[in-house]
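Subgroup meeting minutes
Present: P.N., E.W., G.H.
Scribe: E.W.

1. P.N. recapped why we're keeping a running log of single-chain structure predictions: easier to compare across weeks, and new members can see raw inputs and outputs side by side.
2. G.H. added today's entry (87 aa).
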Amino acid sequence: MRPGWQLADHNANYIGGDIGVGGNTLYHALAGPTPRLDPWTTPLPQVYLCSSATPPGGGVHGMAGYYAARTALRQEFGIRQLPKLAP
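Output recorded in log:
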């Protein structure tokens, strides 16, 4: 077991033991990894981000993936109304 400050030895993304992509600040929420109107998209076609670097940020587990999937469904398949997932 390593202390947090040594995690970057294993994975360079964990600089200083941070696995949440920096602080949850308004700047990080708006700028994200790259400033975009739809922060789950990338400059590459058919590539979407669903990490804690995208809104709503770290600590809201699963929501970035939800929003990235929603964006992909809309852009790739034209689906605007999400299906009901409840029983």
